[in-house]
Amino acid sequence: MTTLVTKGKKAKEQQEEGFRIPEELPILAQEEMVIYPSLIVPLGTTDTKVMRLIDEAAAGDKLVGFFGRRPGSDEAHDLYPVGTAALIARMFKLPDGSVQVFFQGLSRIGLKEITQVDPYLKARVETLEDKIDQTAELEALVRNLTGIFQKIVELAPNLPTELNIAALNMPDPGSLADFIAAHINLKPGEKQDILEAVDVSERMRRLTAFANRELEVLELGSKIQSQAKGEMSKAQRDFFLREQLRAIQKELGEVDERTIEINELKERIAEANLPAEALKEAERELARLAKMPPAAAEYTVSRAYLDWLVNLPWAKSTEDNLDIGRASGILDEDHYDLDKVKDRILDYLAVRKLNPDMKGPILCFVGPPGTGKTSIGQSIARALGRKFVRISLGGVRDEADIRGHRRTYVGALPGRIIQGLRRAESNNPLFMLDEIDKVGMDFRGDPSAALLEVLDPEQNYAFVDHYLDLAFDLSRVMFITTANIVDPVPPALLDRMEVIELPGYTESEKLHIARQFLIPKQLKENGLTDQQLRAEDEAVLAIIRDYTREAGLRNLEREIGTICRKAARKIAEGQEEMIIITPDKLHDYLGPRRFRYQIAEEADEVGVATGLAWTPVGGDIIFVEATLVPGKGNLILTGKLGDVMQESAKAALTHVRSLTAREDPGLRIPKDVYEGNDVHIHIPAGAIPKDGPSAGVTMAVALASAVTKRLVHKDTGMTGEITLRGRVLPVGGIRDKVLAAHRAGLRRVIMPRENEKDLEEVPAEVKADLQFIFVDSIAQALASALSKADNPKRPKARTARHRDPG
């Protein structure tokens, strides 16, 4: 870097003496370095060629030619055409072997011819004299450049103010230009341009342009520095004032709780990792809160809002455990059967393992009460390693329960979705919406409509709660809903969910679940061990058959709990031997049986057919009774039948009458059977509403039996919808109906042929105990359900259960 050393006395004496520059000089070529006449510049080097050149020049006339070399080149012909003849003013050899030399510029020289390359460059040169025309323009250029340089010295922190005095004392305009060019910040090419300008006026013009640019840069830098210093000074002043205020309050024993509260909120907002939109809203609300007096009504509203914002898990999540084997073990450990649900969860884990960015599934578990819909949700959460949140939608009628209230209302809160996420402290929990089929609606809105956005993966990434008024991402939440039946669920909502049915359990499944889960659980809850109380399998089956009639397990667990409590009482009273529960002891613990088998001697009857029905709590059997009574040919229907079931009864009667008109030889129905008689159809349990088309076949069989006086096989259950032409149409709920037939002790089941495929869902042990008869028409059903002749003797039917009328 060029260092200023003012013109020395020796150089001045040499100029006065007319120092002569020889025609040939050793050439010192340096890249990006320029020496101006009359100025002293230092140079340090370890280059052996340069050191030899300097040694030989110092031993002679001490003169060298100093030329600049174009960047990136070592060739001799790449030297600039104009350089400087320089005098070795002083030389120092340092202990590390390097040389420090001070060169004093003498005059500009031009390069004519290279005469030597090794061991160092030599060249023929010519002296270049300055061309000066003393004009008013030159005088103006001198004054202008001097003024610019003075401003540069004032603004540049690395230039001493003495340079202004030295510039004013320059003897001529050429020397002034060289002096200024040596001390302002110029690029190497620009310095070379100044050196090559032999015409002093042109040199001054070029330098003036460069100096003006440098002055602009320095002025802009000074302005930026002043602004930064002002801002820093203000921030420092505010900081010191706050510290002083805090110190004064501390000395006086006064604490500004409001300030502390605002600062705590500010720290919590910074730590909450809020999204950009939420952060902007939080900062705006905090600034509003800071200006608000604590006594204002809006203060607590804003304070509560900020609490909700910073406490929500915007960026907090739990890591999914994608070990499929472990998840399968947990699901099997907690629940028996439920293979459809388990397979679906394991499929989800497999896909999640391959695609970590997949959206959470939205499942709907549909089944009777007590089949494990809610508890399987907890097991899924444990298998996945997620937090579990459950809210019950039963009886919810206000849309605000889902979306929250707007903050304009007194006591406003977010909806139950956001509240659940806050409790979970995670943005990817397993969220169970229980009893979705029991959501209501009134003048306050329809919660089911609000759930449309929550349960739609294409929309819930930007779920907006009315209270927050900000988008919250629910796409990582795994939603599971439960329902007993899907009919009350709006179609648009049902379409957003993947429905998985959880049917009722068979007796063998209930026995297995009781042995593996229910009995150990009740023993633990009642302070007992398996060394104090044991129930035989026959006793558990007796409880299932005689004391419960359900698709689920709640009543079974309740009865087992009753036995455990009575056993605990006996043990507490001093009994030491193990208590063994056998079927003959159930009366002592549970009282008389609530359900019973039909008596074995009961024979087939005329006009009574056994139907299979589906209910929200599983399958059941019904008895359809038909008889003829004196009257005017009317149809009488009793048993609290719905519109659809009444229409099925009319269709059945019409078809049976059509068989009379055709004189069907298989039935032999008398032609005058309807004259002077009314037909009465009754279904017992009259307090229970009944509806649906699947009792059509049962009604037709009961009517045909009543008019032909032929017996209906009591060990045969039936289901199916009929048409006026006598066709049998498929119906739903086959699995539950077949399980009900098996529980009731039936041996044969008549069903539509198109429902044969639905038997795949029926357990194998149940199918092995039953004979299935598939029919396409009423004629086939009648042939299988009715005896072959009037009132024949039939074998006794296998015992079957029915609800005790008492």
Please, could you describe this protein's structure?
By secondary structure, this protein is an alpha/beta fold. It is about 40% helix and about 20% strand. The model is unreliable at about 1-20, about 595-600 and about 790-805 (pLDDT under 50).
What's the helix and strand layout?
Elements: H1 9-16, E1 24-31, E2 40-45, H2 48-59, E3 63-69, E4 82-93, E5 99-116, E6 122-128, H3 136-155, H4 162-168, H5 173-183, H6 188-196, H7 200-252, H8 257-271, H9 276-290, H10 297-311, H11 324-334, H12 339-354, E7 362-366, H13 373-384, E8 388-392, H14 400-403, H15 416-424, E9 430-434, H16 447-454, E10 463-464, E11 471-472, E12 478-483, H17 491-494, E13 498-501, H18 507-525, E14 533-535, H19 537-546, H20 554-572, E15 579-581, H21 586-590, E16 595-597, E17 605-606, E18 608-615, E19 618-630, E20 635-638, H22 643-661, E21 677-682, H23 696-708, E22 710-712, E23 716-718, E24 721-722, E25 728-729, H24 734-743, E26 748-752, H25 764-769, E27 771-775, H26 778-785, E28 786-790, E29 801-803
Parallel strand pairs: 1-3, 7-12, 7-13, 8-9, 9-12, 14-15, 18-23, 20-21, 23-26, 26-27
Antiparallel strand pairs: 1-6, 2-5, 3-4, 4-5, 5-6, 10-11, 16-29, 17-22, 18-19, 19-21, 22-28, 24-25
Helix pairs in contact: 3-4, 3-5, 3-7, 5-7, 6-7, 8-9, 8-10, 9-10, 11-12, 11-13, 18-19, 18-20, 22-23, 23-26
- Residue ranges: pLDDT <50 for 5 or more in a row? 1-18, 597-601, 790-806
The Cα radius of gyration reads: 52 Å
Biggest sheet descriptor: 7 strands, mixed
Number of helices: 26
Averaged pLDDT: 84
Q: Which structural class best describes the helix and strand composition?
A: alpha/beta
Question: Could you estimate the helical fraction of the residues in percent?
Answer: 40-55%
